[in-house]
Specification:
Elements lengths: L1 H20 L3 E6 L5 H16 L3 E6 L4 H13 L4 E4 L8 H9 L4 E4 L11 E5 L1 H15 L9 E6 L6 H19 L3 E2 L7 H4 L6 H15 L8 E4 L2 H14 L8 E2 L6 H8 L5 E4 L2 H16 L8 E4 L4 E7 L2 E4 L3 H7 L5 H4 L2
Parallel strand pairs: 1-2, 1-3, 3-4, 4-5, 5-12, 6-7, 6-8, 8-9
Antiparallel strand pairs: 10-13, 11-12
Helix pairs in contact: 2-11, 3-4, 5-6, 8-9
The structure holds beta-D-glucopyranose (BGC).
Length: about 350
């Protein structure tokens, strides 16, 4: 009996010591599990925070803003000392973020800017405008637009209007391509070039697919060839690809389609010749940068910063990671040799 009591006591002691030495509790709010990248972001954040000695409260909100608000409230009630938030609607969280501010809990916006609020301390992301520039530049080089006399047809598909990133991705790509549109080398046959018109609420593949169906039947049914589909990310690229394939395009003549995230299905499409490229934002890098930021904040140091983003109320001190592109020529080095995916994951 004495032995059991002694064991129990030492267990309690170990537990007490572990929590005394735990570096702190971090709440990680993610938007949805329906898109591959956020699952990877969540898993990487949890693993890296735990490896650094933190306790982690990781929650996914199923793209439901009200659910995300209550998850963040619960993180605060549960004693989170720092919040890391990848928002669904970046402009919808001011009230709950004010609770964090009142509780003295620093807030890091993760990948997506928190807008319309003074209650955000830092932002870690990839250079979002730069993502669009990479997509635009890929097209410029692929079609040698600077030197060609040919004319190519292009259609645009952008992301969700409630996501601050979506406008930046589109602006980066459009600004890069605009000189060639102005020169008549690129023609948008549908005439749909405004962000508000080409946007895809909630980044849904089905919505992007339905819009492309309409464009194809409305403007390309007479056999006009579509050469380029500028899609801001992989979920929209997937919808656009489905639409093009249903319309009769094959790997031999499908337009050059851009994307972002290197989601498994899109990399498979790349290998099958159905998608030309995808911007690669290594979620391990973003997680590592964010974990470092959490550590610096909790140790009272100023985190490493290299950018600011205006969120409509304040300029948020930020860190931009650098995106690169993946295509058929480099995906093995970038995605397989780096250990991001296994060959099995990309096998059809
Ligand atoms: C992210 C993209 C992602 C998109 C849809 C954006 O905020 O930066 O990587 O494709 O959301 O989830």
């Amino acid at each position: 009996m004495k032995k059991i009591v002694a064991i129990l006591l030492s267990l309690v002691l170990v537990m007490a010591m572990t929590s005394a030495f735990a570096a702190g509790k971090v709440g990680v709010a993610m938007p949805t599990q329906s898109l591959q990248r956020w699952n990877q972001d969540g898993a990487n954040m949890k693993a890296q925070l735990e490896a650094a000695g933190y306790e982690v409260d990781l929650q996914y909100a199923n793209n439901d803003v009200a659910a995300q608000v209550s998850q963040i409230e619960n993180m605060l009630l549960g004693g989170a000392e720092v919040l890391v938030v990848a928002s669904i609607d970046g402009g919808a969280l001011d009230t709950v973020l004010a609770m964090a501010k009142d509780a003295g809990v620093p807030v890091i916006a993760y990948d997506r800017l928190l807008t319309g609020t003074a209650n955000v301390d830092y932002y870690t992301t990839f250079d979002n405008y730069g993502v669009g520039v990479i997509q635009g530049q890929y097209i410029v080089e692929k079609f040698d637009l600077a030197n060609t006399d040919k004319v190519y047809n292009i259609e645009f598909t952008a992301g969700s209007p409630d996501d601050n990133n979506a406008g930046l991705f589109f602006a980066g790509a459009f600004d890069t391509l605009k000189p060639y549109i102005d020169a008549g080398k690129l023609v948008c046959v549908s005439g749909q070039t405004e962000f508000e018109v080409v946007a895809t609420p909630a980044w849904k593949s089905e919505t992007a697919q339905a819009r492309m169906d309409n464009i194809l039947t409305g403007f390309y049914a007479d056999g006009t060839k579509l050469d380029i589909c500028l899609c801001s990310n992989d979920s929209t690229a997937l919808g656009v690809t489905n639409s093009l394939v249903n319309f009769g395009y094959t790997a031999e003549d499908i337009p050059v389609i851009t994307g972002q995230d290197c989601d498994v299905n899109n990399v498979k499409n790349m290998i099958a010749g159905l998608q030309a490229m995808s911007v690669f934002k290594d979620t391990r890098t973003l997680a590592a940068q964010t974990v470092q930021m959490v550590t610096d904040i909790l140790e009272g140091k100023t985190p490493e910063l290299n950018a600011t983003y205006a969120n409509g109320v304040i300029d948020v001190p930020s860190f931009n990671c650098t995106p690169v592109f993946a295509d058929l020529a480099n995906y093995e080095a970038l995605l397989l040799e780096s250990g991001y995916y296994t060959a099995d994951q990309l096998a059809n």
